[in-house]
Amino acid sequence: MDLKLLEDLLALADARSFVRAAEKRNATHPAFGRRIRALEVWAGTPLVDRRQNPLQLTPAGKTLLAQAQTVVLGMRQTRQHLSAKTNQAGHAMRLGTGRTLARTVVADWLVQLAKPKGPLFERPVEVRTGSMSTMSEMMESREVDLVCCYEHPAMSVKLSAQRFKHLTLVQDKLVPVSKTTVQGQPLHTLESGPLIAYGAALSLSALLASHGHAHSIDAQARTRYVCDSADAIQEYALKGLGLAWLPWSMVAANCKRGTLVALGKRSDQVHFEVRLYRRITRQSAEIEAVWAAADK
Prior knowledge:
Layout: H1 3-15, H2 18-24, H3 29-43, E1 48-49, E2 56-57, H4 59-88, E3 93-97, H5 99-103, H6 105-113, E4 125-129, H7 132-140, E5 146-151, E6 164-179, E7 195-198, H8 203-214, H9 219-222, E8 223-227, H10 230-238, E9 244-247, H11 248-257, E10 260-262, E11 270-279, H12 285-294
Parallel strand pairs: 3-4, 3-5, 7-8
Antiparallel strand pairs: 1-2, 5-11, 6-9, 6-10, 6-11
């Protein structure tokens, strides 16, 4: 039995929708559906009544759900206990973040923290990536010490203000960019160029969808490619497959070199924050030092 399948069942029981549960578990709808069916094969009986809307678990599903809650909670508490002992022994600081942030803002921030007088000089760091909902769950279950994530009205992290606090690490923005021609002009226009869009599993997808709705952009008709990797989307833009809204922290160097060009005006950009979250209660000396460095 894969623990991930039990976690899928918990997500499905909470969301009561395959689509929303798949997003929460950072999986595509078909892949998530296959995992639930695999769990049903293991159980030897249907676990979900798919005729209901919103869907309901069958009696067998409810029985397994109760056991899944016990098993998953027990495993998380065990991991929390082991992680706490590891941290007390002076091992890695655990940071949860998204895949795109891990290679942009977080990478730059870690460089500063790892300098000779920084709080993480010659200290190990464990960076875990996933969806915003996954990071929130890991923070709640103490599987990570800090969470770095996007903040915008279209995609706000769900962590209680009574238990967690945050600060803004940087301000960033999504900028529409296109490959340049040999004459240095944009290969695609903002008004009619083919779009490269984010897959629904990425947090930036919700942010861009909100912007498109507010500015009457017919994204559905113009979208040529959809991908769940911002790195791949950047590569597609560099190869001229279309225009894409990408984080400025990711494409600034390309725009400076002239391989990409920013399109439109400031109103065509999507501004957002990158926030750092921690627990309100006192943490280890190392975490406190990292927080103090970020709060300058």
